[in-house]
Amino acid sequence: MIRTVIAALALTVASIVPALAETVKFAVTDIEGLEALQQEFGGFEEALEKVTGLDIELFPVSSRAAAVEAMNSGQIDLVLTGPAEYVVMKELAEPKIVVAWQRPDYFAQIAVLSDGSIRSLEDLKGKKVSFGSVGSTSQHLGPAQALTDAGLNYNVDYEAVILSRNVAAEALIRGDIAAIGLNFGHLASVRKAFPDTAFTVLARGRDLPNDILVARKDIADDVLQKVRVAFVEHGKELMEGVLKGDDNQKFKGGFFLTDVKDSDYDYVRSMYRTIGVDTFKDFVN
């Protein structure tokens, strides 16, 4: 009799308490540490949970390579990454595309001193041109491609050097280099850091492919569908959550783009080839 009562109570409790929502782990390749990830994407985590009914868990990764390993081992389900990282992830983990995250004014530029001797791209031949971190879409690959598109071959018609942004600006002002490759937002920050110096843009690349949210290749179809539908039907709410992060202001004014395919990132593959990388089996460092 007692066992019958206990069993009945158990069935009653099970019918009252809802099933636990499926946990979906979300990572971002350019943010290290859980605290920083929560500061930037805590608002997005809450918004995505609300519109999907899924339990979204932020999962910090220490590097792009770590993100690939975590995807392949099933530790994470969703990864937000940049276009340069995506083409390598595609080879190493075969992820499924969820949605592209547009960044307005996301393009590369070649900047020089307004009162300097460099007046045209032709003047850069034989000179030093600095780029940002190796493999960066907008600070290295994009500017290098912009010069290639204009007829200047990478590290052949000019000498390519790698310098951090403010160090490069100081080198440009001193005359140690002739030009800087950087993106639109970074040039704005350089102008703010050096308010007494005038800079001119000699070349501008095309808009760069967007950041992209991908899912591990064996994610459950129903989970993937829920997330995709969320971006279609609740993009505004999700973007409001994203923009609660300070560094995420780069997405302000942008949209979540669902009509995206792998071939949209062939331009990034051409950038890699421009700097001499013909395979995409490893991250460039």
Topology (elements, then pairings):
Elements: H1 2-16, E1 23-28, H2 34-52, E2 55-58, H3 64-72, E3 78-81, H4 83-93, E4 96-101, E5 107-113, E6 128-131, H5 137-149, E7 159-162, H6 165-174, E8 179-183, H7 184-193, E9 199-207, E10 211-215, H8 221-233, H9 235-242, E11 256-257, H10 266-274
Parallel strand pairs: 1-2, 1-3, 6-7, 6-8
Antiparallel strand pairs: 3-10, 4-10, 4-11, 5-8, 5-9
Helix pairs in contact: 2-9, 3-4, 5-10
What does this structure look like?
- This protein has 285 residues and is α/β, with parallel strands linked by helices.
- The chain has 2 domains: 20-104 and 209-274, Periplasmic binding protein-like II (D-Maltodextrin-Binding Protein, domain 2, 3-Layer(aba) Sandwich); 107-207, 3-Layer(aba) Sandwich (D-Maltodextrin-Binding Protein, domain 2), CATH 3.40.190.
- It has helices at 2-16, 34-52, 64-72, 83-93, 137-149, 165-174, 184-193, 221-233, 235-242, 266-274, and strands at 23-28, 55-58, 78-81, 96-101, 107-113, 128-131, 159-162, 179-183, 199-207, 211-215, 256-257.
- The longest helix is centred in the N-terminal third of the chain and has 19 residues, at 34-52.
- The relative contact order is 0.19.
- Mean pLDDT is 92; it is low at 1-19.
